[in-house]
Amino acid sequence: MAQQNPNQKPTTSTAPENMPPDAREALSRLNAVLREGAALLKSEYFWRDHAAWLETQGYKLRPRYQPGWEPDIPAFENVPPNNEEWVPMARGGIVDAIRVKDGKRVLMKRIYRSSHPYEVEITTLFGTEPLASDPRNYCVQLQDTLYPPDHPDITIIVLPFLLPINTLPFDTVGEIVDFVQQIFSGLQFIHQNHVAHRDIGVTNLMMDGVEIFPDGWNQGFPYLTPDGRRQTNFFTRTQRPPKYYFIDFGLSRRYDPSDPNPQEEAIMGGDRTVPEFQIDQETFNPFHTDIYYVGNTIRRLITEGTDIDIGYYGMDFIEPLIKDMVQDDPAKRPTIDEVVTRFEDICKKLGPWKLRSRPIPRHGGIFKGLQHHIEHWKRRIQYIAQGVPPIPSPRPSK
Description:
Strand content: 5-15%
Mean pLDDT: 87
Low-confidence stretches: 9-13
Helix content: 25-40%
Structural class: alpha+beta
Number of strands: 14
Largest sheet: 5 strands, antiparallel
Shape: globular
């Protein structure tokens, strides 16, 4: 059964001609502000300037990026400010598009090869057979590679249109276990292919949202439809199990398999808390740092939370492992093979009752929590009656 975001109120509409003069004037001024704020950013000019060429390659950008586009917001029309036509992408080097041949929404990323010389190579490696179809592969899958003729240093890679992993809360402990299993397995696969990611974090882990949000989602506000006019239906991770993906191999490197202890200079990614980067030392083993990155991501997202991420009570079963993964001495951290083995042993001790239980958010009001708890129990009874497994399994990628 599809869920609706309990925090999102429906968009209402009032005919401007029925408004008092003061309200009409206020609406006119508001829309003037919207028009100014919706103007194309300088970081988006590249996509506007290449929209026509991209269409010859089979990809159509949103109206916002078409040549000559201007934010056309009528002075007295009650316009939803979340319409994707004037919502910019969070990062100028990335844009969404429609693949013309099948109407599927994709993501495009602009890469300067002089700045990130290995990103295309490593993304291609994990998106090419035989690695692409390996069930342990949780790396974002390359859809296409484009080369703008007027920019010899730029490569555009085409990727699936994915959702941030923290778009919706976890509904059961089993959903958390499934997420952690996939991430551990994915990093094991990356390391076994002699690649260190070097920039793992909440923003570089994504999930397939097509099944969870079957009506699509708004780029800036996922609980709204793409046009921003109404709430979109969505499902829990148990009802529609997602697959999780590692993205952004801009800092990644592949190493010689014969070298058991490769060394790299410190390079700051999104997570700036890496203990070994805080000391006066020239080089580090990037595989050890990856273990910290993943452990700290789980610590922030699941066990402790942050100002942005919820965090949950009752995750004590995984806390000793996470503590070992984030310890200050890199050499004392477990390898990813050890992490996977230890987590498998942990999961064997978790019964169905625990796995189906609702993880209690560390941040949230009592009354809202009670409402969610009642809704959870209704779903829980349905899952048991329908024989839904307590640990969801992702559907094969389409």
